[in-house]
Amino acid sequence: MSDQRLRRRSLALTSLIVLAVAGVGIGAVASISRVGPEDAATPRAHAAHSVATRVVNMPVDGMVCLSCAATIKQKLKAVEGVSNVEIVFAQRLFRITYFANRPDVPRRAAAAINNLGYKAGAPVQIR
């Protein structure tokens, strides 16, 4: 590749990152729960909120844009036992809430991230 083409590509990537950070805000947390407010009155939603949960922060290397984050979040929400996934984009990590009776969730979440081509860091238990 020519130097000029590399510079243009680098500038485009830098612009995307700047736009992504500006759109999310530094330190912002995006969260969408599996159980939405419209479901709060259902028995399933009530049961999901009464079950003991644990929370881990899982750093991810290679996540450079909001599209990457959305793809990873969608994959994490599909992991059985996960009740909520939040993106902490400024710190390049995911906050994963899972049911305490599923201690294998952090390992399976890391495998899901790695299977997408990103690199999951060691999960840090926060609750």
TrEMBL record:
<dbReference type="GO" id="GO:0046872">
    <property type="term" value="F:metal ion binding"/>
</dbReference>
<feature type="domain" description="HMA">
    <location>
        <begin position="54"/>
        <end position="121"/>
    </location>
</feature>
<protein>
    <recommendedName>
        <fullName>HMA domain-containing protein</fullName>
    </recommendedName>
</protein>
<dbReference type="InterPro" id="IPR006121">
    <property type="entry name" value="HMA_dom"/>
</dbReference>
<dbReference type="InterPro" id="IPR036163">
    <property type="entry name" value="HMA_dom_sf"/>
</dbReference>
<dbReference type="InterPro" id="IPR001802">
    <property type="entry name" value="MerP/CopZ"/>
</dbReference>
<dbReference type="InterPro" id="IPR017969">
    <property type="entry name" value="Heavy-metal-associated_CS"/>
</dbReference>
<keyword id="KW-0479">Metal-binding</keyword>
<dbReference type="Pfam" id="PF00403">
    <property type="entry name" value="HMA"/>
</dbReference>
